[in-house]
Design brief:
The protein has about 475 residues and is α+β, with helices and mostly antiparallel strands. Helix content is about 45%, strand content about 25%.
Length: about 475
């Protein structure tokens, strides 16, 4: 075997193998193995010690599976995501700097859904902190000078009718009542099935007081506006491309897996085979199901980035009941007890908060001890940020501390942060099912809500997950 293992992987392969021989722990490694034609292809090798009744190792059983295509696909997907993320980051930073340097903010009004969005600098333009209020047409009209509201309404109707870019000047009142002169732009763009009215608002009070200077700066700002509009379109197109990429990848991967499972089951139902052959078919079907679960979990993970950040009041008591309904069969199967006190209502993204609760409850049931029924207790309290020993805690804020405590298998202290990493599994798939993505999704959802999560565990006693979400 040493002659056909890639020299780049051999040293680590031997180290892990010697460690397994010494400890009896499972051997698992991804490595490159040379084929008959001299090319190297990626494989995942897995060995399990066979022991007698006294626990002595009497042999090893293992497998080596080629994963070359999966490896190439994963690398290509990762590179694509990195490139897109970098492009979006550069575009967003350029966009922010352009807004700040030109004393302007941008807006996007979805003509399909009616949702209005402001950039951070647009909030500042009228005297507010970013996201201090929920943007709406009614709120916007309140700040437009009463004498200019008719003009602004007609100008907007003209843009919507002609679907062409335009600009106009009017007056607005800031939060403190200060009157400012605004130059606004707007145009209609189409993104998929949706239509957007996008544009900018610029404070031109000083320029308005000096007409000659205003003429010069208007020409400069027209170029900036054109650049910003192009960047808006590029960002929308990039988001659409990423969504399309995820759909195609998930569909093209899942369809063959469904066929493998379907035809495998049909063969078993219609043909007679030896016990060994039936076992091989069952393993193929099981592997297909695990791969399909992994794809679904990866899509769930990616969607936590793309979900619209609409915060609404979320009754956590009702969300617990939703999770119990979703996990009804598993709860019955394990005879699980889920106990929760009067939990608060807090602002959050409902679909993500519901997924967070479901993942944590499901995790507690999955990693329960076989000899006792799972008992999950969910409690909450409000705590000052300065009392929390965590680098992410804002000392000036208060937090909802929501705790999930169970009586399961627990884990060693060294894994308190590792369990939240993507694909991190502390146990083999034969011991506990799963994809290693559930807790990574939990962490991402908590971060989306400007919070953080802490995990503690004790082997054979249980685990405790505490989520900290700002009260404001």
């Amino acid at each position: 075997m040493q002659k056909i293992i890639s020299p780049a992987d051999l040293k680590e392969d031997l180290r892990l193998w010697q460690h397994s021989l010494k400890t009896g722990e499972d051997f698992k490694m991804e490595k490159r193995i040379r084929r008959h034609d001299g090319t190297y292809r990626w494989h995942v090798s897995h060995g399990i010690a066979q022991k007698d009744e006294q626990g002595n190792i009497i042999g090893w059983v293992g497998s080596s599976t080629e994963i070359e295509e999966q490896k190439k696909f994963a690398e290509a997907l990762e590179q694509k995501v990195k490139e897109r993320t970098y492009q979006l980051h550069i575009q967003n930073e350029t966009f922010k700097q352009a807004e700040e340097s030109s004393m302007q903010g941008s807006y996007s009004f979805n003509l399909t859904t009616g949702k209005l969005s402001y950039s951070d600098n647009l909030f500042r333009l009228i005297g507010y902190e970013p996201n201090e209020f929920e943007p709406s047409l009614e709120e916007f009209n309140k700040h437009v000078h009463p004498e200019d509201r008719d003009f602004v309404q007609k100008a907007a109707e003209k843009v919507l009718a002609n679907k062409t870019g335009d600009e106009w000047h009017y007056r607005m009142n800031t939060k403190t009542g200060t009157l400012i002169h605004i130059k606004g732009t707007g145009r209609v763009i189409e993104s998929g099935d949706e239509k957007l009215l996008v544009g900018t608002l610029q404070d031109v009070t000083k320029e308005f007081q000096n007409k000659e200077e205003l003429i010069v700066k208007t020409k400069q700002l027209q170029k900036i506006n054109q650049k910003l509009e192009l960047q808006n379109i590029e960002i929308e197109n990039s988001n659409a491309e990423l969504a399309s990429f995820s759909y195609i990848a998930s569909h093209d991967l899942q369809e063959p897996l469904r066929k493998i499972q379907t035809f495998g089951k049909r063969i078993l139902e219609t043909e007679k085979f030896s016990d060994k052959t039936q076992d091989y078919f069952n393993r193929i079907i099981s592997a297909g199901e695990r791969m399909q679960n992994l794809i679904v979990s990866l899509l769930d993970f990616s969607r936590t980035n793309t979900t619209e950040l609409i915060f609404v009041p979320c009754d956590l008591n009702a969300i617990v009941e939703e999770s119990k309904n979703d996990l009804h069969e598993r709860i019955l199967e394990k005879q699980a007890i889920i106990e929760h006190e009067n939990l608060p209502t807090l602002n959050g993204i409902h679909i993500q908060i519901a997924q967070l609760f479901t993942n944590l409850i499901d995790n507690a049931i999955k990693y329960s001890r076989p000899e006792i029924n799972p008992h999950i207790k969910i409690t909450s309290s409000v705590i000052e940020g300065k009392q929390i020993q965590h680098p992410s805690a804002n000392k000036q804020k208060k937090y909802h501390a929501i705790t999930f405590a169970d009586n399961g298998i627990g884990f060693e202290k060294q894994y308190e942060t590792k369990i939240f990493e993507l694909f991190q599994r502390l146990h083999g798939k034969n011991e506990y099912s799963g994809t290693g993505i559930g807790l990574a999704i939990v962490k991402k959802i908590v971060i989306n809500h400007n919070g953080f999560i802490i995990a503690e565990g004790k082997p054979n006693i249980g685990s405790t997950f505490t989520i900290y979400l700002p009260t404001s």
